[in-house]
């Protein structure tokens, strides 16, 4: 038996494995192959065998993008959700991200304990650092000017929006925050940003060189998109469906990028460490000396 099974995922799970091994925990993996762990971790012959080899299972973020398969670095026909659910057993604990309602119900029925990384406030706040840095990186790559001195709009002032606004302000951007709640607009002004309501967007949206959206509902519909400067850079970091009418944006030839899963793309080691820290905080696993 092993301490942990790691089933699917991306480069974040590779760094999680390295961290877990450094804590003297035994790991078996499936759907993951990378030079960083080659020869250091056991590989399961099948998903079922890997899952049934330990009491704790770590899987992908998101757990599934299509509702059928678990994402993995190495493809296999048995990386299906149905195979996963058939293999887990009562008493096991599963860590992954963005479980669907159906998955939660299935795990509950099987008496499997589960933790969703992405519903934990601490994980979300710390991941917001990499998300903000990655969004800014994408904006710099996609634009032709400097962020310094630019008129920048951040829509939404939740966990990601707050970190993003601070990072942009640190780059000497002229930051405006659009938020629904009056308390969020007041807080943004107290922190030194301009603030507007969503109702004011039609009158102000043409002012901005860069627009960062963090709200996962449609904000920028066709009428609003037509008011945006054709030279503006638009970065949507909200989960699907995002905050833009992407079809209209494409027809208008706007410089729009839907940039998702940023922590795993730009800071996989830091993200992996955050996730392992969360696992240890649940007392599901303990480091071995």
TrEMBL record:
Q: Which NCBIfam families is this protein grouped with? A: PRK08306.1
Query: Gene3D superfamilies per the record?
Result: NAD(P)-binding Rossmann-like Domain
Every copy of the Dipicolinate synthase subunit A N-terminal domain together lies at 4-118
Protein name as annotated: Dipicolinate synthase subunit A N-terminal domain-containing protein
Q: Which InterPro entries match?
A: DpaA_N, NAD(P)-bd_dom_sf
Superkingdom in the source lineage: Bacteria
The record lists the membrane-crossing segments as none
């Amino acid at each position: 038996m092993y301490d942990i099974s790691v089933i699917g995922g991306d480069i974040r799970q590779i760094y999680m494995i390295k961290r877990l091994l450094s804590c003297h925990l035994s790991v078996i993996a499936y759907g993951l192959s990378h030079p960083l762990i080659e020869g250091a971790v056991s590989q399961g012959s099948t998903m079922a065998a890997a899952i049934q080899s330990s009491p704790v299972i770590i899987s992908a973020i998101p757990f599934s993008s299509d509702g059928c398969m678990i994402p993995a670095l190495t493809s296999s026909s048995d990386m299906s959700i149905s195979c996963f659910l058939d293999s887990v057993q009562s008493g096991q604990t599963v860590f992954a991200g963005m479980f669907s309602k159906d998955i939660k119900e299935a795990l509950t029925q099987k008496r499997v304990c589960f933790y969703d990384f992405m519903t934990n406030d601490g994980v979300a706040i710390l991941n917001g650092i990499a998300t903000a840095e990655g969004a800014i990186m994408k904006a710099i790559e996609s634009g032709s000017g400097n962020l310094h001195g630019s008129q920048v709009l951040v829509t939404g002032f939740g966990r990601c929006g707050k970190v993003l606004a601070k990072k942009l302000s640190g780059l000497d951007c002229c930051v405006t925050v659009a938020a629904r709640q009056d308390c969020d607009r007041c807080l943004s002004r107290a922190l030194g940003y301009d603030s507007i309501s969503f109702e004011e967007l039609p009158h102000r949206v043409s002012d901005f060189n860069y627009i960062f959206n963090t709200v996962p509902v449609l904000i920028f519909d066709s009428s609003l998109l037509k008011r945006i400067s054709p030279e503006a850079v638009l970065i949507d970091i909200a989960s699907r469906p995002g905050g833009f009418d992407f079809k209209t944006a494409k027809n208008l030839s706007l410089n729009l990028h839907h940039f998702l899963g940023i922590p795993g793309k730009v800071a996989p080691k830091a993200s992996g460490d955050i996730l392992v820290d969360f696992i240890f905080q649940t007392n599901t696993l303990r480091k071995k000396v």
